[in-house]
Amino acid sequence: VGEQFISKYYDVLEKLPKYQHRFYKENSLFTVCDVQPDGTVLTETASGNLDAIQEKVMKTIANAVVAADKTLDAQFSQNNGVLLQVAGTMKLQGVDRKFVQAFFLATQEKGYYVLNDMLRIFAPEPVRPPMENGFVGAHVAAIPPPAFGMVPVPIPGGQLPPRVDMVPAMPPGIPVVPPPVVPVPMPGIPQLSQAELKKLLTAEFAQFGTFGSSGVNVVRSPRFGMVAYVFYADEKSQKAALDASGKLRLADSDKPLKILG
Question: What is the secondary structure of 208-248 as a DSSP string?
């Protein structure tokens, strides 16, 4: 179901975005979070009306081209729905942007429809200086690559539901629907909103160095639960954070944070 859905969804988005509303229904919710270079986030949301959802799609992501190397994680969810998370790069208005998009595909009489759709588009990466004979050109200051650590919160029980590799055949003309994003409990940590968790992580990881333009971004992952992406301005800060893996604990938590490079 997952592979079939995202193939069709992104193909329509690129070539025929005026029909994107056909993936949704009146009770669907569509949200786009656009991270700016200074770290601020512009959020656009539409719900309860297909015209409003279509208008929001046309305003924010119409004709976006998603690179073929995108990744997909999927889980079966409540009432036989399907939860999807897609990560990759999309060319938006001529600029390559990293993104993470989560769908909840709810069941309908024939197939699925998108009940929840949440997209986060990260700020464009800084342009690297020109190279001369394999080295940065004279008098041009090198721009360090963006560095980040990923802080996943393990899923209770340590076991994951099986991947969704096969999807029931869909009747012609009926689009597959994406899944809603649902809160995932965090073992040892009280239920927090993404904004509250971002505030805690920002305070904790600031000790290792200066953040990059994207700062700290918190998303819910079908695979890991709550995940934070911490972007640093230089590799030294990133290494300091990685060295602290397993030693950090958030307030009121008895479990250490595991940091991945």
Answer: G--EEEEEEEEEEETTTEEEEEEEESSHHHHHHHHHTTTT-
Minimum mean pLDDT range among 50-54, 70-74, 242-246, 250-254: 250-254
Q: Would you give the DSSP letter of residue 260?
A: B
- Are 227 and 87 within 8 A, CB to CB? no
- pLDDT single digits (tens) 110-119: 899 999 999 9
Burial class (CB in 10 A: 0-12, 13-18, 19+), 239: middle
Residue 107: enclosing H or E segment and its boundaries?
strand 95-107
What is the rounded CA–CA span in Å between residue 217 and residue 219? Answer: 7
Q: Residue 229: how many CB atoms within 10 A of its CB?
A: 19
CA 49 to chain centre: 24
Closest CA to 73 of 64, 82, 81: 82
Tokens of 210: 């200066």
Buried b (16+ CB within 10 A) or exposed e, 21-39: bbbbeeebbbbbbbbeeee
- pTM summary value: 0.51
Find the mean pLDDT for residues 226-230.
Answer: 74
Q: Which of 234, 198, 213, 219 is nearest to 36 (CA)?
A: 213
Cα–Cα–Cα angle for 174, 175, 179, rounded to 5 degrees: 135
